[in-house]
Amino acid sequence: MNTFLIITAAILVILLYMYFEAGWLKVSRIDFTKSCKGLKILHISDVHINMLRVGTKRVKELIRQEDPDIILMTGDYIEKPVHASVFLDFLQKIKLSNKTYICLGNHDYKAYKGNNGSLEIFIKEIKNLHVEVLINSSAHIEKNSFSYNLIGIDDLREGNPNIEKAVEGCSPAATNIAFSHNPDMVLNLSRKHADYFFCGHFHGGQIWMPFGLEYTFLRKDKLCRMGIKRGLHKINGITAYLNRGLGNVEVPFRFFSRPEISIYNIP
């Protein structure tokens, strides 16, 4: 009986910690240059608004404090169409005056599967908030005489990625910053397409299991099978960062994989 109570108490403590960790935001700072003249990017991924445990006020305050040049968001915002209005409210509250660029993830497409009209309305409502949706398209920005191409590539699983179309209008002299939801997209890129690549999707595992079992059983993606699961990597000569995501999928729990907002300083 005592053993049963101890085991039950231990499970409850672990579950409580996992629920707490799902709201314990980690801010990761990656400086690719020490110059204060660089482009400052704040990267949010995998909001999963229905399972989000990080407070909107916390995100908004961080953006206000950091005042990035741009915000990048790399997909998986909603699970069902009913969540769209909640995400749009979240987006309106956090975006402030910072230029914001987003792409879509596999969960966003699944939410509107078989209903392209509603998906287009969702995208239009995002654009109405003065947010640029880059799906196989690019935007050009400049800072302190430096030029940057922001290249948004559609989701590898549920979208229709077209790399050549995405880079079509890019300035040849600019630094190429590509972003997409699924990390495996970088395997299709070369240095001519991107200098930097930012993504999400893996959640850093979300709930850690020994021997990488969470990837073995729950994911079929190539990079995680290669041991590339989170953080900073060099892939195909491209500097890539895999963001752990802000929200949670399936359950509002995390274990040894805190929700993350990453901040990059690009030369």
Question: Quick recap of the structure?
Answer:
This protein has eight helices and twelve strands. By secondary structure, it is an alpha/beta fold.
How many E strands? 12
Listing every helix as H and every strand as E from the N terminus to the C terminus, the arrangement reads HEEHEHEHHEEEHEEHHEEE
Q: Could you say which overall geometry the principal axes of the C-alpha atoms support?
A: globular
Return the domain count: 1
Mean pLDDT value: 95
Biggest beta-sheet profile: 6 strands, mixed
Known CATH architecture? 4-Layer Sandwich
SS strand fraction: 15-25%
Structure description:
The structure is a single chain. The chain has 267 residues and is an alpha/beta fold. It has helices at 2-21, 56-66, 84-94, 106-111, 116-127, 163-166, 213-218, 222-225; strands at residues 26-31, 39-44, 70-74, 99-103, 132-133, 137-143, 146-152, 175-179, 196-199, 231-235, 238-242, 260-266. The longest helix is centred in the first third of the chain and has 20 residues, at 2-21. 28% of the residues lie in helices and 24% in strands. The chain has a single domain, classed as Metallo-dependent phosphatases (Purple Acid Phosphatase, chain A, domain 2), CATH 3.60.21.
Key structural traits:
267 residues; alpha/beta; Purple Acid Phosphatase, chain A, domain 2; six-stranded mixed beta sheet; 8 helices; 12 strands
